[in-house]
Design a protein that fits this description.
Elements lengths: L8 H17 L21 H26 L3 E12 H6 L5 E9 L3 E8 L3 H8 L14 H21 L6 E7 L14 E11 L2 E9 L1 H19 L3 H12 L5 E4 L7 H5 L18 E5 L2 E11 L2 E9 L5
Antiparallel strand pairs: 1-5, 2-3, 2-4, 3-6, 5-6, 7-8, 8-9, 9-10
Helix pairs in contact: 2-5
Length: 321
């Protein structure tokens, strides 16, 4: 008959210490971090997407500044104020009582966006287009003739938007002016829109130019911007080196040019095969120009190299430096 072994106090203490040592040796399982989340933040523009949108719209603002300035023959400044995602109902609340609101079609998405322009600058633009001085005027409702003239300005804005947003693959087409009571029917009021705000300054007068993209367009824009950025990041150093090698194998036009010179018309009239036309250029002190792709890179002198003609490069030009 087997006898049960009784443990002494020292043995019991040793077992507890061994169990405690094993539990301390096993690392704690990583715990998930729980943070509060608001579903209203879903789909917000990331900082990277905001930088890409700002870059595109800075191009649009600069191009529109030059276009309207040349068209109005006056000082015009267009600048981006903000780019944010808000509900269309909030966009509608920002529209002043007197404003020009129109629908703009987005292709190839077949979606409708809303463009809103403050009427503070409209009378001045119309006055400049009609040959006036474009002085300040109180905001007022437009006549039918003034509305037709302003629609030409909106079409110019749509053309510049198409040019700036070409990397995203969107084109903008002006449809028609919308009454403010009809505007909520263009986009559901609860839909989240991408809102772009620009300041249009004409001399001492300024007003806002706002553009609201529907969700289908804003999601496509943000997705394409993210894809464009990710494609740029995927280029490995080996790929860039390979592209550089392939570009180095391309051939470009190059020429050795003498400086422009004037010759008498009588000398040209007396030209015949075998004649020598004298240029009024010192042979020793007038270098030629080596150009590649039409750009002057070096001052050079024509020389011979074996059985070929060549250029002896003398000094780099400012374009090369």
């Amino acid at each position: 008959m087997a006898m049960e072994k009784e443990l002494g106090q020292e043995e019991i203490d040793a077992l507890f210490q061994a169990a405690r040592a094993r539990s301390q040796a096993v690392p704690d399982a990583p715990r998930s971090r729980v943070v509060p989340w608001s579903f209203s933040r879903s789909g917000q523009i990331s900082n990277e997407q905001l930088r890409a949108i700002s870059m595109i719209n800075d191009i649009f603002a600069r191009n529109l500044t030059h276009h309207l300035g040349a068209w109005f023959r006056s000082r015009v400044q267009v600048s981006l104020v903000s780019a944010e995602q808000i509900q269309f109902s909030e966009f509608l609340l920002r529209i002043p009582e007197l404003a020009y609101v129109c629908s703009v079609r987005l292709e190839p998405l077949r979606a409708i966006s809303v463009l809103q322009m403050d009427l503070t600058t409209a009378p001045s633009m119309i006055d400049l287009l009609l040959g006036g001085e474009g002085g300040p005027s109180e905001p007022r409702e437009l006549t039918d003739i003034e509305e037709a003239i302003l629609s030409g300005v909106v079409e110019a804005i749509c053309r510049e938007l198409t040019t700036a947003w070409q990397p995203v693959g969107l084109s903008f087409s002006f449809e028609k002016r919308q009454m403010q009571t009809q505007t909520p029917r263009l986009i559901p009021v609860s839909e989240k829109t991408l809102c772009l705000s620009f300041e249009l300054r004409l001399g001492e007068i300024s007003g806002l130019l706002n553009l609201a993209f529907p969700a289908v367009a804003s999601n496509t824009i943000l997705r394409r911007l993210a894809g464009e950025r990710s494609r740029q990041r995927r280029h490995s150093p080996e790929t860039r080196l390979r592209v550089r090698e392939l570009a180095g194998a391309c051939r470009t036009g190059a020429a050795l040019h003498l400086p422009p010179v004037r010759v008498p018309a009588s000398s040209l009239g007396a030209l015949c095969p075998g004649a020598v036309l004298r240029f009024e250029l010192p042979a020793s002190r007038t270098p030629a120009q080596f150009r590649a792709g039409g750009v002057v890179l070096f001052s050079a002198a024509p020389v011979g190299h074996a059985d070929h003609r060549a250029a002896h490069l003398l000094a780099a030009s400012e374009a090369k430096k």
